[in-house]
Amino acid sequence: MPDIVIMEKPESVSYEEIHEVLYRAHESNRQKGFVVRTALMTGEQLEKHIGPNGKCFVAMDGDKVVGTVSYRIKKCSLWCVKGPAVDRILVGVLPEYKGMHIATKLFTAVYDAAIAGKYKWIISGTQDQNTLMQEICLKDGFMKVDFSSVKPDHYAVIMVKWLGKCPYTSTMISIMYMAKKAYVKLRYKPGHVKRFGI
Ligand SMILES: CC(C)(COP(=O)(O)OP(=O)(O)OC[C@H]1O[C@@H](n2cnc3c(N)ncnc32)[C@H](O)[C@@H]1OP(=O)(O)O)[C@@H](O)C(=O)NCCC(=O)NCCS
């Protein structure tokens, strides 16, 4: 098992390298038939996407970047999350390093930052088709809270992990989620295209 070190992205690692890791990590998703837009972003676009209040973390095997995660601070207005939350984004581990709990260690870096910043929520958005990431999030204490149809081509699942006590029961959260999913699927095709032309 390689000796993996998790750290905030040092200056010596460029956002172009982060792009390369994300692009390769998402090979498995492309094989399953879906493309995640952020995996195609250039280094410059990734840096902009994270923004000035966010942070990028890397998993290093020696001087090689083998995994990455970032977060940005997002003002949320979901039914159950109102206010600034830590939005975990840009998750990827190189194919040959998957299954070694590298993502788990990267996620800990994000949780530590969220707790240190006294944020109440971590949110994580995935494409509806990315069932593996959803399973990992559910195992890790996230709950599916919202569903939307996103331009240009997919549905998205929004998951939340409460860092303090969650004021809602899990039954209430799943009813709200299922109702929103049913509404969105009836109203829109993937990509925010209205059904029935109206
Ligand atoms: C999702 C991803 C980041 C996971 O990285 P990883 O380092 O392999 O994950 P970990 O080894 O930390 O595994 C975390 C948990 O998920 C489980 N898991 C990981 N891959 C799995 C798989 N293919 N099938 C079933 N379970 C899996 C692990 O067993 C572990 O659970 P455990 O703690 O109970 O053992 C990686 O597969 C990846 O880069 N995927 C493509 C990019 C992507 O989809 N990113 C998310 C965009 S929203």
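^ coenzyme A complex. The longest strand covers residues 64-77. Helices lie at 15-25, 27-32, 43-50, 102-116, 131-139, 170-187.
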